[in-house]
Specification:
alpha+beta; Jelly Rolls; 2 domains; 4-stranded antiparallel beta sheet; 3-stranded antiparallel beta sheet
Length: about 220
């Protein structure tokens, strides 16, 4: 992909007049992130806003104990509300973003984004849609943390992340970061799932053995 390929997938570019399209294309910058690369870190000054073409970016907070919790994910044709608000309000970033897999994106300069927001209805709509999606994701997270057990949340995560072979290739610490809990808690619950026949564990992977039981646990 190149930056034009990515931009043509998002409505704010497709719906823009030719002159605005030319400005966006000229000022946008293509970037490719390897798995694990940081896009931005909590406390940094505003940086260019990324629009993802392919791949996935995890946006998360790090607590005083060093424990992480995922707020939401940014995938194809999406952007991060955290970086948008940082740019539009001129405030430091309130979370950290990291590529979960190899990710291609375009970066929109802060000054240019503020300019386009003031002149383009399509750009404003894109920002409101980003706000809506982030609100849904964070509200769901709060509901999970407040009202669901760690066993239920872990079962849901396993079902969601399983590939066609019913295998989840995630480390226990990565699962813990996703759920906002300790690695030891994840290991203990997985051990319980394995004893009940729902999963089978091996180094760096978890295999679902009983879908129906895992759904029941979720």
């Amino acid at each position: 992909m190149d930056k034009q390929d990515i931009l043509e997938r998002v409505a704010f570019y497709r719906e823009a007049p030719a002159e605005l399209q030319a400005s966006i294309l000229a000022r946008a910058r293509y970037v490719k992130l390897a798995q694990g690369d940081r896009l931005f870190s909590e406390g940094e000054a505003p940086i260019p806003v990324a629009v993802v073409g392919s791949g996935s970016i995890r946006v998360f907070r790090i607590g005083s104990t060093g424990r992480e919790i995922t707020l939401y994910h940014v995938r194809g044709q999406q952007s991060s509300l955290v970086s948008m608000l940082s740019v539009l309000l001129g405030r430091p970033l309130i979370a950290t973003a990291q590529a979960e897999v190899a990710t291609e994106a375009v970066l929109l300069p802060a000054a240019a984004l503020r300019e386009w927001v003031s002149t383009s209805e399509a750009m404003r709509r894109f920002i409101f849609e980003t706000m809506n999606q982030a609100l849904v994701d964070v509200t769901s997270l709060l509901e999970d943390v407040a009202f669901r057990t760690i066993e239920s949340r872990l079962a849901v995560l396993l079902l969601q992340h399983a590939d066609m072979a019913r295998v989840i290739s995630m480390r226990h610490e990565d699962i813990a970061a996703e759920l906002g809990t300790a690695r030891e808690v994840v290991s203990r619950v997985l051990e319980t799932f394995e004893r009940r026949g729902a999963v089978r564990r091996s180094r760096g992977r978890i295999e679902i053995r009983d879908d129906a039981l895992l759904r029941q646990l979720s």
